[in-house]
Write a structure and sequence with these properties.
The complex is a heterodimer of chains A (174) and B (194).
Chain A lengths: L1 H24 L4 H36 L1 H16 L6 H7 L3 H15 L4 H11 L4 H11 L8 H22 L1
Helix pairs in contact in A: 2-5, 4-5, 5-6, 6-8
Chain B lengths: L1 H18 L3 H38 L2 H16 L8 H14 L3 H18 L8 H11 L7 H9 L9 H28 L1
Helix pairs in contact in B: 1-2, 2-7, 3-4, 4-5, 6-8
Classes of the chains: A mainly alpha (174), B mainly alpha (194).
Chain lengths: 174, 194
């Protein structure tokens, strides 16, 4: 749907306009603050770089060996029934455990099929609307000293599945 | 967890590649993938720093504080049992706003503080309180509105229009969060009945 595309191209400029314009009106030293904040970006990237190197190598060799293709052809009969592309099943599954590993898989999809292909778009949207369930649960509940988590996992899985279904539908509109 | 996963991936790739007659490709992939990860990080440096820089301006000018205030009534709806003036409201709001703005690393410290306060409210029990369940389900449903990192990855891999997925991503995120919120509200009612 070209309407979705149309709004998309406005969002980033509008956010920037609002932030910069409002800061200007509030007489904030916007450029000084911007430069100060941009340093945090370096810290964030520095933090994820080592894991990204490790995991992109792992996914890269897995792809080169032909094991990834074999995996998706094994699960294809099941995913055909669910009308979900088998190439993206590892992405959705791995995302529940590790964000950087899922990122590496997404980049592999971009390389194989292109970021603007159906798989590339669907993969992008799937990654945008899901979180690392098991990682978050363990870190947060450990902090609270909780052992019985009741219905949290069920709720998290429901939200994730809803996101998967919604991603397939909206990608169909694009 | 990743210690096993990573090891298995590498070992499977080498053995499978050797059996499959693709050991040469595997060999090249080791070198090329590591180089590629660094190239990607350079693109990420640009986009992430632009975003964190803008967010610093937003923080300084009070945009983030006023967004946090907007979130107050939503938090009262989601967590009706938390005392109104309790500090945990502040932590939950800050965590959610940071997530919405795509500042995941800034969200976690607030989230952990919120969990510690919820633990005190829960009298340190080993069973999660209803509020903890709600907080985590919504947190995991993904709140991030503008997927800055995904846009950076797309541009690195030659997308014609890296930002074109924004609206679709927002819609999908709203659906997953909506489902998480609905689940939490129903579960809270059921928990009270039993």
């Amino acid at each position: 749907m070209s309407f979705l595309l149309y709004i998309s191209s406005f969002i980033i400029p509008l956010v920037v306009l609002y932030v910069v314009g409002y800061g200007f009106l509030q007489k904030v030293h916007i450029y000084d603050e911007f430069v100060k904040g941009a340093e945090d970006g370096f810290k964030v990237v520095k933090g994820i770089a080592p894991t990204l190197i490790g995991l992109m190598v792992a996914i890269g060799v897995l792809r080169a060996s032909g094991a990834l293709d074999m995996l998706s052809s094994i699960i294809q009969p099941v995913t055909n029934i669910l009308k979900f592309p088998s190439q993206l099943v590892p992405l959705v599954t791995v995302k529940m455990f590790s964000s950087s590993a899922a990122t590496s898989l997404l980049l592999d999809i971009y390389k194989e099929y292109g970021p603007d292909s159906y798989l590339g778009k669907l993969g992008s949207i799937l990654m945008s609307c899901s979180e690392t369930i098991f990682y978050t649960l363990s870190v947060y509940f450990m902090t609270a000293g909780v052992k019985k988590t009741r219905y949290t996992l069920a709720g998290a899985l429901v939200a994730t599945m809803a996101g998967v279904v919604a991603s397939v539908i909206v990608t169909g509109w694009m | 967890m990743l210690n096993y996963l990573w090891g298995i991936m590498i070992i499977v790739a080498i053995i499978f590649g050797a059996v499959n007659g693709r050991i040469e490709e595997v060999s090249t992939a080791f070198i090329n993938s590591s180089k590629e990860a660094v190239t990607l990080c350079i693109t990420m440096l640009g986009v992430m720093s632009l975003w964190t820089g803008l967010m610093q301006v937003a923080k300084k000018s009070g945009i983030i504080d006023s967004l946090t205030k907007v979130f107050r009534p939503i938090i009262r709806c989601l967590f009706p049992d938390i005392p109104k003036e309790h500090i945990v409201n502040e932590y939950i709001a800050s965590n959610m706003i940071a997530n919405v703005l795509g500042l995941g690393w800034a969200a976690t410290p607030f989230g952990l503080k919120a969990m510690q306060e919820l633990k005190i409210l829960n009298k340190g029990k080993e069973t999660a309180s209803v509020d903890m369940c709600t907080f985590l389900i919504i947190n995991i449903s993904s709140l991030q509105l503008i997927p800055v990192n995904i846009i950076a990855y797309r541009s690195q891999y030659g997308s014609v229009n890296p930002a074109e997925i924004i609206t679709a991503a927002i819609l999908a995120t709203l659906v997953s969060t909506g489902a998480g919120v609905a689940f939490s509200i129903v579960a809270r009612k059921l928990a009270k009945v039993s």
